[in-house]
Structure formats: structure tokens, C-alpha cells
């Protein structure tokens, strides 16, 4: 049936062309951005899940950076205590030498002078070692609550305060005439370094676990949000062909109304 007011073939062509053009535009947008979801209308539920996964990933990565900061802090403290240990070894040697009966009073005084200088250096290391502007060892305050994931309340607490307090008492009591005071200090020093070493090991394992969790999170996020270039390239090519075909068909459909004029001629 030929009509002037309604061209059904043209309407069908317009609708098909519109759908194909919309699909082609969507495929091109996904290819240009690399994302399957570029707006809420693309996948409302997927966008919500992807946003939550992305927030988890951000928190996990910040947790890894926090772990690295904690490890750096503890290793700074351990480096300082390692130097104290080296000084303690020399002090053991000096105390043993000082108590040798063959030394004269002048020789013992010379030995004591070096011993006292080393004791002063230990005090300086213990009271002045800093990390990020904060003292680490003074007053037995080396401790850290490293935040791993604030969202679920995961923290790792590192605390060497008790052994540091004992160490402070022991190095204050150093006496060149009593080698036992040096041995006592070295014992509490070893206990403190053991606390720090355990903390470093725990933090490193925690950081590795965070990295593993983030790997799975990123994989899930990619599956939801990222565009599959093989699929989208195929969709774009298909819809480009449909747009071209639809445009051609629509042109022919619009010519149908001109046939009416031939009937009136």
C-alpha cells in the first residue's frame, strides 16, 4: 500500500539505523577509553561493584606503602642498635683490658677515657636517632601500629618498648671496672634487636599478603570494568556495516513516496 502520511518502511529503517548507530558509538567509546563501563547506564550493578573493588585496591596499596614505611623505620632503629652492639664489643675488650693487673694506673685511666667516650656515644645514638623527625629509641618508645587496611581494621603492632627500657637502664650503668655491666647491656640489646627483627619479618609477610590480595582484586576489577578489545572491535565493525546498510535502505524507503506522484501524473 502506497501512502503519503505514513512510510512504514522508512520508520523501520530509521529505528534499525538508530540502534546500529548507538551500538557503534558505544563500541567506539569503549575502544577509545579502554573501559566497558563508562557511565552508570552501561552497567549500574557492575559500576557499583567496580567502585568498591577499586576502593579496596587503593586501600591495599596504601597499606603496602605503610608497611614499607614501617619496615624502613624499624631498619633505621636496627641499624642504630647494630652500631651500639659494635661499640659494646669494643667496651667488652676495654673492660677486660682495664681489669688486667699488669696495667699501671695511667694505663687504666687511658682505657677508662676511651670507655667513657664510647658510653657517651651510645647515649647519643640512643637519644638522637630519628626517623621522619621522630625519635626512635629515646625513653624506650620504639613502637608502631602500622595500618594495613583501615576499612577492615587491620593493623600490625610492633612494640620493643619493654626491652628498650631495660636497655636504657643497662647502658646507663656501664662501668669499665665491671665487664659484667657490658655483658648485661649486650643481652638487653640483643633482646631489643630480636623484637625489631620479628617486626620487620611480620611486616614483610603482611606486605606480600596485601600484594596478593590486590592482585586478585585488580583481576576482578578488570573483568568487570575493562573493555574486551576483540569483542568491541568486532561490534564496531558489525555496526558500521549495519549503519551503512541502514542508510542505504532508508534512502530507498524514502523514495517510495515519490511513486505516489507518478500515479497522479
Tell me what the structure shows.
By secondary structure, this protein is mainly alpha-helical. The protein contains seven helices and four strands, in the order H-H-H-E-E-E-E-H-H-H-H. The protein has helices at residues 8-33, 44-98, 105-128, 161-172, 179-225, 229-254, 258-264; strands at residues 130-131, 134-135, 143-149, 154-159. The chain has a two-stranded antiparallel sheet with strand order 1-2. Strands 3-4 form a two-stranded antiparallel sheet. Strand 3 and strand 4 (154-159) form a beta hairpin. Helix 2 packs antiparallel against helix 3, helix 2 packs antiparallel against helix 5 and helix 4 (161-172) packs antiparallel against helix 5. The radius of gyration is 38 Å and the shape is rod-shaped. The model has no long low-confidence stretch (mean pLDDT 85).
Number of strands: 4
What would you say the CATH architecture of the largest domain is? Up-down Bundle
Instruction: Give the full name of the CATH homologous superfamily of the largest domain.
Output: f41 fragment of flagellin, N-terminal domain
The CATH C-level class name of the largest domain: Mainly Alpha
Q: Compute the CA-based radius of gyration.
A: 38 Å
Provide a concise account of the structure shown.
With 265 residues, the protein is mainly alpha-helical.
Secondary structure topology:
Blueprint lengths: L7 H26 L10 H55 L6 H24 L1 E2 L2 E2 L7 E7 L4 E6 L1 H12 L6 H47 L3 H26 L3 H7 L1
Amino acid at each position: 500500500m502506497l501512502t503519503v502520511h505514513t512510510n512504514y518502511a522508512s520508520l523501520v529503517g530509521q529505528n534499525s539505523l538508530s540502534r546500529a548507530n548507538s551500538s557503534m558509538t558505544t563500541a567506539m567509546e569503549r575502544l577509545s577509553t579502554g573501559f566497558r563501563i563508562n557511565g552508570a547506564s552501561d552497567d549500574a550493578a557492575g559500576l557499583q561493584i567496580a567502585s568498591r573493588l577499586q576502593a579496596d585496591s587503593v586501600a591495599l596499596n596504601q597499606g603496602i606503602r605503610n608497611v614499607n614505611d614501617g619496615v624502613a623505620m624499624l631498619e633505621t632503629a636496627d641499624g642504630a642498635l647494630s652500631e651500639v652492639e659494635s661499640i659494646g664489643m669494643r667496651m667488652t675488650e676495654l673492660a677486660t683490658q682495664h681489669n688486667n693487673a699488669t696495667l699501671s694506673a695511667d694505663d687504666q685511666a687511658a682505657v677508662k677515657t676511651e670507655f667513657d667516650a664510647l658510653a657517651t656515644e651510645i647515649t647519643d645514638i640512643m637519644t638522637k636517632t630519628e626517623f621522619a623527625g621522630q625519635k626512635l629509641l629515646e625513653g624506650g618508645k620504639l613502637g608502631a601500629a602500622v595500618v594495613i587496611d583501615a576499612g577492615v581494621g587491620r593493623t600490625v603492632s610492633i612494640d620493643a618498648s619493654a626491652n628498650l627500657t631495660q636497655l636504657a637502664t643497662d647502658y646507663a650503668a656501664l662501668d669499665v671496672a665491671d665487664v659484667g655491666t657490658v655483658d648485661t647491656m649486650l643481652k638487653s640489646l640483643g633482646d631489643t634487636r630480636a623484637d625489631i627483627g620479628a617486626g620487620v619479618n611480620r611486616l614483610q609477610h603482611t606486605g606480600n599478603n596485601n600484594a596478593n590480595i590486590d592482585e586478585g582484586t585488580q583481576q576482578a576489577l578488570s573483568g568487570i570494568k575493562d573493555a574486551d578489545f576483540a569483542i568491541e572491535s568486532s561490534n564496531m565493525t558489525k555496526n558500521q556495516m549495519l549503519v551503512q546498510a541502514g542508510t542505504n535502505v532508508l534512502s530507498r524507503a524514502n523514495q517510495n513516496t515519490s511513486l505516489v506522484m507518478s500515479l497522479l501524473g
